[in-house]
Design a protein that fits this description.
- The protein has 124 residues and is an alpha/beta fold.
- The chain has one domain (4-123): STAS domain (Transcription Regulator spoIIAA).
- The protein contains four helices and eight strands; from the N terminus they run ββββαββαβαβα.
- It has helices spanning 30-45, 64-72, 89-101, 113-120; strands spanning 4-6, 10-15, 18-23, 27-28, 50-55, 61-62, 78-84, 107-110.
- The protein has a six-stranded mixed sheet with strand order 1-2-3-5-7-8, sandwiched between helices. Strands 4-6 form a two-stranded parallel ribbon.
- A hairpin with a 2-residue loop joins β2 and β3 (18-23).
- α1 (30-45) packs parallel to α2.
- The longest helix is centred in the N-terminal third of the chain and has 16 residues, at 30-45.
- It is globular and about 30 Å long.
Length: 124
């Protein structure tokens, strides 16, 4: 059994040297909320770098302040990031995020979890 951390905003676990982050059905809004999400993840991974699979399929929306913070600080101790999205809405949001916020680590968008994991494998 893997260690799991469930917070108000997400569920985190590490499997096969990949950090999984499954977001709950939330609106990511404001600096404080984005900071808390990143702080929870950093605490869970104990400041050890990992490739990260972010399942954002349930995120309802996010604001610019949160996106800006997550693009910069959200890359802390991340080797690479895969966004697992639903076609159309969350895919469009993830593409907008990458194009406008320029994440600091290699970042991919996928509708298939197997492909999202495959993208992260070289960064393990």
């Amino acid at each position: 059994m893997h260690e799991v951390l469930e917070t108000d905003y997400a569920i985190f676990w590490i499997e096969d040297s990949i950090l999984f982050c499954s977001y709950k059905a939330i609106v990511v809004k404001g600096y404080d909320m984005a900071k808390r999400i990143v702080a929870d993840r950093l605490s869970f991974q104990n400041e050890r770098p990992y490739p990260i699979l972010c399942d954002v399929r349930r995120i309802v929306d996010s604001d610019k302040i949160a996106r800006d913070f997550l693009a910069r600080e959200g890359s802390t101790f991340a080797k690479a990031i895969s966004f697992l999205v639903q076609p159309l809405k969350s895919q469009a949001q993830a593409e907008f995020f990458i194009q406008n916020n320029k994440p600091l680590v290699p970042t991919g968008i996928f509708t298939n979890q197997t492909k999202a994991i495959a993208f992260l494998m070289p960064y393990k």
